[in-house]
Design brief:
The protein is α/β, with parallel strands linked by helices. Helices cover about 30% and strands about 25% of the residues. The longest helix has 13 residues, at about 165-175. The chain binds ligand EPZ.
Length: about 425
């Protein structure tokens, strides 16, 4: 297995190009199941999760090519509708094929994704909504077995909680359903907005895009003609590198980024004393001379994203004062805390709230990545920790960050990928 070795540095300088968004790419790849012919997707991030979902589609019989950041997916002759455990267990977002396959074929079997490090991650809201649309769903030996004897019927759905992939799943199911589906308490993340916009451009009538109430007018089984498109930039990758600039007090510029998707992240970094120069697709951070503490609560978009919580917690260890960070979306998303404490961070956990006393000098040591965003928090800490930091189990990192060590090395970080 690989591990990352970092030495502390004085500062970073230069520009970092942001890749396509992993969490936009996954529903967009699942969306190709709704197309009548091949779909070309560009600006895909070359990360493990994308390869996993493309492999799942080829296991179902799709013709898939993935070169560089471009994929061409042809699902016109899918040969089976079962997403097996071996693939789904490695990536829970495989659940995104359930809605489209069920809507198109009238039956689908998907292995239950199971929990993951950060929490239970139930999919009850996905299943409840599909049942409301007429699906018959059974759980048999770890598989979701869904059938729709008379096809899916549009209806009024209200999500008890805001769910990002739940919204994407139901939007895609509603596209091929009979009649109108209204989805209330829908997710408004930019990744969901892009999915809806591409479906709309492909001839589907969708009202309320970007709001909490989506209305989708089903095509009654008619497959779509989907033109090629670029995936939007990854706002979480971008936020992670902005934190790298802030924690090393470096001025760096991100290119190929969408500043509009980072409103709450930029606002919190400004509260911590950083300032920014923005253009249409670049962000330059002008770091705080003295990092100020922060209070933040993770919530659904457009509020502060849970996927940036770990990175801000690492940054807060360098703030002068007490920061309070509350994780409201997932029940176990503080696994980076114990690793940061081993580096010398002064953090107290009380339920879903972390209190971080700064500024504390961190010292390099061997640490273990536990999940995707926790891994990036350890990288941020390693950039400024005294001495050498070795981050193990970085397969977590490879799920969602394109060539992180190369991008950081190019702006001056002392970081290497080595073999255990
Ligand atoms: C998406 O996960 C993202 N993944 C996650 O990013 C992100 O953290 C999360 O949204 C929240 O923003 C992808 O888009 C592939 P949810 P998702 O359904 O859709 C509860 C990363 O680091 N819930 O919005 O699985 C759930 O337990 C990953 O890139 C139910 O109770 O998250 C959680 O508390 C990590 N029942 C809350 O809703 C359901 O049926 C939000 O979950 C579904 C969700």
């Amino acid at each position: 297995m690989d591990y990352l070795q970092l030495q502390n540095i004085d500062s970073l300088a230069g520009t970092i190009e942001i890749s396509g968004a992993k969490n936009a790419s996954l529903p967009l790849i699942a969306m190709t199941i709704l197309a009548k012919k091949s779909v070309t997707i560009t600006n895909l991030p070359q990360v493990a999760d994308i390869r996993t979902l493309l492999k799942l589609l080829s296991n179902l019989g799709a013709t898939v090519t993935f070169e560089g950041t471009k994929a061409v997916v042809d699902t016109s002759v899918l040969t089976q509708t079962k997403a097996t455990y071996d693939i789904v267990k490695t990536m829970r977002a495989s659940i995104l094929v359930l809605g489209p396959i069920l809507a198109r074929f009238g039956h689908c079997e998907v292995s239950l994704p199971g929990g993951c490090a950060i929490g239970q991650r139930p999919i009850d809201l996905h299943l409840k909504a599909l049942e409301q649309m007429g699906a018959h769903i059974e759980i048999k030996s770890g598989y979701i077995e869904a059938t729709t004897p008379n096809g899916l019927q549009g209806c009024e759905i209200i999500f008890d909680k805001i769910t990002v992939t739940g919204t994407a799943n139901i939007v895609m199911a509603a596209v091929l359903a009979k009649g109108k589906t209204t989805l209330t308490n829908a997710a408004r993340e930019p990744e969901v907005v892009q999915l809806c916009k591409i479906l709309q451009k492909s001839g589907v009538r969708i009202d309320g895009i970007g709001t909490a109430i989506l209305t989708i007018y089903g095509t009654d089984g008619k497959l779509l003609d989907i033109d090629s498109f670029d995936v939007i930039p990854d706002r979480i990758e971008a936020g992670t590198y902005l934190c790298a600039g802030a924690i090393t007090q470096s001025e760096i510029t991100l290119t190929h980024v969408e500043p509009k998707h980072l409103g709450s992240v930029l606002a919190k970094l400004e509260e911590m004393g950083n300032t920014f120069t923005l253009t249409e697709n670049t962000i330059t951070i002008h770091p705080a001379k003295e990092i100020k503490p922060v209070k933040l609560v993770t919530q659904e978009y457009p509020a502060f994203p849970t996927d940036m919580q770990a990175q801000f917690l690492a940054l807060a260890t360098q703030a002068h004062g007490v920061s309070i960070i509350e994780e409201k979306l997932f029940e176990n998303r503080f696994m980076h805390v114990s690793e940061l404490q081993r580096m010398g961070a002064d953090i107290t956990l009380n339920g879903h709230t972390a209190t971080v006393n700064g500024k504390t000098a961190l010292s390099g040591t061997d640490v273990m990545a536990t999940d995707l965003r926790a891994s990036s928090a350890l990288v941020l800490a390693g950039l400024i920790a005294e001495g050498e930091t070795n981050i193990h189990r970085i397969y977590h990192l490879d799920r969602g960050y394109v060539a992180l060590e190369k991008k950081l090395e190019a702006v001056g970080a002392k970081i290497k990928r080595l073999k255990e």
